[in-house]
Structure formats: C-alpha cells, structure tokens
Design goal:
Elements lengths: L1 H83 L5 H6 L1 H15 L6 H13 L4 H17 L5 H14 L6 H4 L9 E6 L6 H14 L4 E4 L8 H12 L2 E3 L7 H14 L4 E4 L8 H19 L5 E7 L4 H13 L4 E5 L10 H8 L3 E5 L7 E3 L2 H9 L2
Parallel strand pairs: 1-4, 1-5, 2-3, 2-4, 5-6, 6-7
Antiparallel strand pairs: 7-8
Helix pairs in contact: 3-4, 4-5, 5-6, 8-9, 10-11, 12-13
Bound molecules: guanosine-5'-triphosphate (GTP) and magnesium ion.
Magnesium ion binds next to helix 8.
Family: Belongs to the GTP-binding SRP family. FtsY subfamily.
Function: Involved in targeting and insertion of nascent membrane proteins into the cytoplasmic membrane. Acts as a receptor for the complex formed by the signal recognition particle (SRP) and the ribosome-nascent chain (RNC).
Protein name: Signal recognition particle receptor FtsY
C-alpha cells in the first residue's frame, strides 16, 4: 500500500515535475520576454533620453545665446543708464520688500475707495502707531492731515492719501543730499566714530563702510575700540581681512581710549584718508558713557587736528521705540552727525525712520539691509520715498 502509494506518488511527482518544467520554461520565456521588452523599453527610453538631452542642450545653447544677448542688451542699457547718470533703484526696492508689504501697502489699501470720516482717521492712527512711527508723531501727522483735508476741501480718498504721503515726506526734511552724504574730504585725515548700544550692528556696518570707501580708492584704517566684549577684536579683524583694511588693536580689556589714540596717530603719521573707530556697545549708565565718549572725543580732536568729524549712531530698526529712546540719550551726550539704521530687511515696520530723523533732527546716512558686505545703502530720501510708495 505504502509502495503503491509511493509509485502513485512517484507518478504524481513525475507529472508535477513535468508541469513544473513547462511552468519553468514558460516562466523563463516570460522573463526573457520581459527582459527583451525591458531592453527595448530601455533602448527606447535611452533614445528618448538622448533626444531629450540633445534638445535640452539645444535649449541651453539657445538660452545661453539669449542670455548673452540679454547681457549684451543689459550692458548696453547699463551704459545708457550710466551716461544718463540715473541712480539704479531696483536693489533698494527689493530690499525694502518687507516693510513695503507690511505698513506701506496696508496704508494704501486702507485709503482706497474709503469715505473720509472719523473711523478712517482712527484706523490711520492705529496703523501709524503699529508701524513704529510712535504716539507723538502719529498724533501730529493725523492732526496735520485733518487740517489739510479741511483747508483744501479734499473729498476723494486718493487725494487724502497723496496728502499723507507729502506729510510723511516732510518728516525726512533733514535728509537732503548734502546731509546724508558722508563728510569725507580729500587731503586730510577723516574720522568716523561709530557708537550705539550692543548688538545693533556697529561692527558689521564699519566693515561695510570700509569696503565702500576702499572701493572709492580711499586709504582706510580701522580702530578696534571695542575692547570690552569677548571676541569683538577678532570680529573686527575678520572684517579687516575681508576688506583688505588694516586694523589697529590692543588686547582685550585694555583702555578703548588708548586704541583710539593709537589708531588716529597711526592714521595721521601714515597719511590715511579715513579712520573708522569701533566702540563697545554697552549703555551701562549715562554718566559712564558720557565720560568715556568725552575722553574719546578729546583724543580724536587732539590727535587728528580736526574739531569736526563724523559721529554715527547705529540703531537697530527692529527695536522700534526702544531704538528711538537710545538715540535720544546718545544725542544728548555726543555731537551726532548722522544715523545708520540697520536690519531694515528684518522689519515689517518701516515707520521708525520718520521719528528717528525728525526728533533727533539728524540725517540718516545709511540703511543696513542684510548681513552681507554689500548690504548697506547710502540713504537717499527721494529713492526711499519712491521705493516705499511705489506699486
Ligand atoms: N539682517 C541684518 N543683520 C544685520 C545688519 N547689520 C548687522 N546685522 C547683524 O546683527 C548682528 C550684530 O551685529 P554687530 O555688528 O556685531 O553689532 P555690534 O553693534 O557691533 O554689537 P556689539 O559689538 O556687541 O555691541 C550680527 O549678527 C550682524 O550680522 C543688517 O542690516 N541686517
Ligand atoms: Mg561690535
């Protein structure tokens, strides 16, 4: 029985093997076909790929040709531009994208198609305060606007918006072309002292200014006057390397006035055109700050032989009203000649610029629009107004 079964099993097995075999060959055939198909497909794909690559190359070539043409065109346009001596507005506009989209575009939206009533003035008040223009200036602007609207009998919201634009422009009155320019004269040592509380961007701005002046062909030297903060000397030295500008330094913790002395003396003896002086950013207390800055001022005057020199206050525009308060304190202590408003790329509240220049009665000389070496714009109020109010 067992044997029978065994044979049966054997037969069955044979049959199964035969079936298995045919299955196997079928399978192999299938695999073969699949491989062939795949190969064909791959060949096809390869062909398509190659075709694509060729057309891609052609496209690239075409594009390169086009961009070459464009570049030539741009070069030509640039040449025309240069001969026309028109300022290039595009970079500032781009960099102001954040505040533009925030406050200034909201301002425009707010007026469009609205009736001029108390509600609108209240809305305007709110928006101006939110944008860091500050309570005092907001009240002043809204009151002036109401007065002008009544006087000129303005009815259309577009006209009221235009009037508001004019009022804001008036707040930039200290920013004439003459005032916003750095006072650098040929044939003498020019000093730029940079002050401000910590972290506002003094050292970075010094690096950027050094680059600008060097590009203009000036012989520039930097004084590492921040001997207080750890790594401050290394930071300014790094900027010195990046810009190819010599840095005068002493050890960490030494008297900053001594570094200033060294720098100005070296600059004078070796006929440098500009000495830019970094300072520590601590606003410990008003009396100490005053004493330190008085000492520094005295040394600069004695060593350079200049009674007047640039003293630039750096303000971080993202600190809003706080920045304005700091500015007022520094303005009382030192004879500021201008302001650098940094981190303008990082605020949606561009409004701070109006009270800072207006309340201090000082021009904005530069706007910082990023951390890169080129990210410092000379402040041009016309360009600024155009950039913030453009569509
Ligand atoms: N986004 C942006 N960052 C900036 C700008 N200016 C400076 N910074 C950054 O702000 C930080 C502080 O800058 P510093 O130049 O060290 O500031 P400081 O005033 O010298 O600081 P202290 O020496 O500590 O007083 C750095 O990370 C800078 O890269 C600017 O215009 N835009
Ligand atoms: Mg610094």
């Amino acid at each position: 029985m067992a044997l029978k079964n065994f044979f049966k099993f054997g037969k069955k097995k044979k049959k199964e093997e035969e079936i298995e075999e045919t299955k196997e060959t079928e399978k192999n055939e299938k695999i073969k076909k699949n491989i062939e198909n795949k190969e064909n497909k791959e060949n096809k794909e390869e062909k398509i790929k190659k075709g694509n690559e060729i057309s891609e190359k052609n496209k690239k070539l075409k594009n390169e040709k086009k961009s070459e043409e464009n570049e030539n065109k741009e070069e030509k346009e640039e040449k025309i531009e240069k001969t026309k001596k028109k300022p290039k507005l595009k970079p500032l506009k781009d960099r102001l994208a954040t505040p533009k989209k925030g406050f200034f575009s909201k301002l425009k939206e707010m007026f469009l198609g609205k009736t001029i009533d108390d509600e609108l003035y209240e809305e305007l008040e709110e928006l101006l305060i939110q944008s860091d223009i500050g309570m005092d200036m907001t009240m002043e602007i809204v009151a002036d606007l109401e007065k002008q609207v009544a006087k000129k009998r303005l009815k259309a919201s577009q006209d009221v918006y235009e009037e508001l634009k004019e009022l804001l422009k008036d707040k930039l009155v200290y920013n004439t072309e003459e005032n916003t320019k750095l006072d650098i004269q040929d044939g003498k040592l020019n000093i730029i002292l940079v002050v401000g509380v910590n972290g506002v961007g003094k050292t970075t701005s010094i690096g950027k200014i050094a680059k600008k002046l060097k590009d203009e062909g000036k012989k520039v030297i930097i004084g590492a006057g921040d001997t207080f903060r750890a790594a401050a000397i290394e930071q300014i030295e790094e900027w010195g390397k990046r810009t190819g500008v010599e840095v005068v330094k002493q050890s960490h913790g030494s008297d900053p006035a001594a570094v200033i002395f060294d720098t100005v003396k070296t600059a004078k003896n070796r006929n440098f055109d500009v000495a830019i002086l970094d300072t520590a950013g601590r606003l410990h207390n008003k009396r100490d700050l005053m004493k330190e800055l008085e000492k520094i001022n005295k040394i600069i005057k004695e060593q350079s032989g200049n009674d007047k020199f640039e003293t630039l206050l750096v303000i971080d525009s993202t600190t809003g009203q706080n920045g304005l308060e700091q500015a007022k304190i520094f303005n009382e202590i030192v004879d500021l000649t201008g302001i650098i408003l940094t981190k303008f790329d990082g605020t949606a509240k561009g409004g701070i610029i109006f009270p800072i220049t207006n309340e201090l009665k000082k021009p904005i000389k530069f706007i910082g629009v990023g951390e890169g070496i080129e990210d410092l714009r000379k402040f041009d109020s016309k360009e600024f107004v155009e950039a913030i109010f453009s569509d």
